[in-house]
Design brief:
Layout: H1 38-52, H2 64-77, H3 79-110, H4 113-128, H5 135-142, H6 146-170, H7 174-183, H8 187-221, H9 230-239, H10 243-271
Helix pairs in contact: 2-10, 3-4, 3-6, 3-8, 3-9, 5-6, 6-8, 8-10, 9-10
Length: about 280
């Protein structure tokens, strides 16, 4: 007779499956709409709050609503319209010349050892010289009219475009060059398919710096023997102690700079949409 022995040992409970740790994201996160406007709006709100509380001297720093009233009055008089159009024209001409020169010199220097020997050292020397320090010499060469102003703006613009584009060209992986040689690409196809895509990120960085530089140079140049322009308007307001007019000019410069930089960023995102970067 077979005796069945029942085990009295307790049955061990099934161990729970180890909880899977959630991987922490290291990216900045989803891009917020109009995120770059938050900072300026905070500054504007603090300015308005300090003015309303009487913490700011109205003669030195007028309230935002005072500046807006002054701007509206200048616009209705027609003087602000003329000054804005004149400044845009000067900045546009200088930027176009500087952009063309910067890209052409960067390509000639980055794609040829001879071009690099002739161009790069000269540009680096020009970069070491303060651009605004060239104003007296350019006045002697070109006179005190519009030509020297546009020339100075072009110099301010072309230097960052050249430096960043040339650095991007120099940073192209040599394996891509070897692959192009193995594939038998022509010089034109090599530039179109290897050089231009590799240089575009650096070019857009230089373009943004060049756009900002054109406005920075303009505010100084328009105070030298000018009869119109935002800088001239601000210089005249300084003589009469009109701080509200000066702030109108500064705000317009800031708005133009922000709009132009945002436009370059938008074009950059569209053109370089194939890249997967931290910001995207």
């Amino acid at each position: 007779m077979t005796t069945t022995t029942l085990s009295t040992a307790p049955v061990a409970a099934a161990e729970p499956a180890p909880r899977r740790r959630r991987r922490r994201s290291l990216s900045p996160g989803k891009r917020l709409p109009a995120a770059r406007m938050v900072g300026p709006l905070v500054v504007l709100a603090l300015w308005a709050a300090a003015s309303a509380a009487g913490r700011l001297d109205p003669a030195a720093i007028p309230a935002p609503w005072t500046v807006l009233e002054t701007g509206a009055r200048l616009w209705s008089d027609g003087t602000l319209t003329t000054d804005v159009l004149t400044s845009l024209e000067r900045a546009g001409y200088g930027f176009a010349i500087g952009l063309t020169a910067g890209v052409a010199l960067a390509l000639a220097s980055g794609l040829s050892r001879t071009g690099e020997a002739l161009i790069d050292g000269t540009v680096q020397l020009n970069r070491a010289i303060p651009t605004l320090g060239l104003i007296p010499l350019f006045i002697l060469w070109l006179g005190i009219g519009e030509t020297f102003k546009i020339a100075i703006i072009a110099i301010v613009v072309y230097i960052p475009i050249y430096l960043n584009t040339h650095a991007a060209l120099s940073g192209i992986d040599h394996r891509f060059v070897e692959l192009a040689e193995v594939q038998g690409l022509s010089r034109v196809r090599f530039i179109r398919e290897i050089v231009i895509p590799g240089a575009l990120p650096g070019f857009f960085v230089g373009l943004r710096l060049g756009v900002t530089g054109s406005w920075l140079g303009l505010v100084v140049l328009e105070q030298i023997n000018a009869t119109s322009g935002l800088g001239y308007m601000m210089f005249q307001a300084q003589n009469y102690g009109q701080s509200d007019v000066i702030l109108v000019g500064l705000l317009i410069y800031g708005v133009f700079g922000l709009i132009s930089d945002s436009a370059v960023r938008l074009v950059e995102r569209r053109v370089l949409s194939w890249r997967r970067t931290l910001s995207s």
